[in-house]
Structure prediction request, 471 residues.
Amino acid sequence: MNHIQALSNPIFKIVSQAADELGLDCYVIGGFVRDYLLDRGTHKDIDIVAIGSGIELARKVASLLKEQPKVSVFKNFGTAMLRHGDVELEFVGARKESYHRDSRKPVVEDGTLADDQNRRDFTINALAISLNLNNYGDLLDPFNGISDLESKIIRTPLEPGITYSDDPLRMMRAIRFATQLDFQIEQNSLQAITDNKERIRIISKERIVDELNKILSSNVPSLGFSLLHKTGLLPFIMPELVALQGIEEIEGQRHKDNFWHTLEVVDNISKTTNNLWLRWAALLHDIGKAPTKKFHKKIGWTFHGHEFVGSKMVYRLFKRLRMPLNDKMKFVQKMVLMSSRPIVLSEDYATDSAVRRLVFDAGENVEDLMTLCEADITTKNPKKQRRYKNNFKIVRQKIIEVEERDSIRKFQPPVSGEEIMETFNLKPSKEIGIIKEAIKEAILEGEIPNEYEAAKEFMLAKGKAIGLTPS
Ligand code: CTP
Prediction:
């Protein structure tokens, strides 16, 4: 079947011309072809495989383009890359590869298109479309990739044990594609992943996190995390999550399985936000529950202080996975630390001052925090579900009202430290802190509005109360 319509970008005509001028065969392969056939929008990374030198082909393509783009050459890998408009073209010579057991770095030899397709990870990623003029648009599908696309199956071209052991990152990729595309991993592949799970150790943390981020960014991330769990990969990546699994029962009292609960929360939040870091917060919001779990005869199971412990664990987990220890990490920590605050409010009547304190502490992240807590409602009891949701609505409404009145979110003390010093003729001292704190408390408690005049009056009264006299 011809697939000329996949090649609507004029760049393909140029690649075709360059290849014909050099007298070598070339094909577009991999993600571009897969996503075209799946109608997933245009893939911006275009992989071109040449039967011959990919680097030479890249240089020829660049010379035929008006803008003469820069060609980046990676000699060790035999690849070359250039940018054209909004696409990135990567050129590689067809190759045959074999791997050492302790490395992802293959021994590379020149090969045929068939050799090249064989060494690829999945049948759906081995589909190639010819670019030479004589067979422009022809699809080459030696492993029934089309049929696997139709039946939504992740399958390896070679015996799966070889494909995964050669490059263990593919275990993560299989799970990531299954999650992104809602495909099934074929049984032998699943078994091979399970058998090779320990080889994930040779993969860099950065690459693992790339895949985790793609899983977390999917519509239903739990598909990926349950596969990571099922294949036994998860303990190598996030033992903290595995530790949440299981239900314990003592004296007839059970707690919920916090691993499966967490996955439900992640799926819930993925329906309402694409913010990756908020999704991370959902994934990690209960990790402090494993180390804090206790059973008390009178009250049953408790997870005292799990939010605080969890927020500390976020730092260690990010560090171990070489994730950025920046404001994103701090955001996740803050969400985990505060993850129970709105819940407590929603269980009972939420007073204005409690809402004001919530807005004060969460600051500009208060909506995200609410989103996290709403996703945390996983009760199967429809009555409770309705009640919690309704209470959250009320809390959200109160947040708006309190904001309108007191603008607490970006709280700035209405009376400055300098003014307090001037008023009472003070040098820097602890009294200033006491008065400032008292003003803030009075505002949060709703005793005074968040306004200058009221705060000044309050300052004078408070100063006198602690024995100061205005100058
Ligand atoms: N590939 C592979 N094994 C890997 C990585 C990549 O065989 N570990 C091959 C696949 O044929 C893949 C192609 O290289 O299609 C390009 O890889 P990459 O750009 O990483 O992924 P895409 O398939 O393009 O998909 P995505 O952009 O969604 O990651």
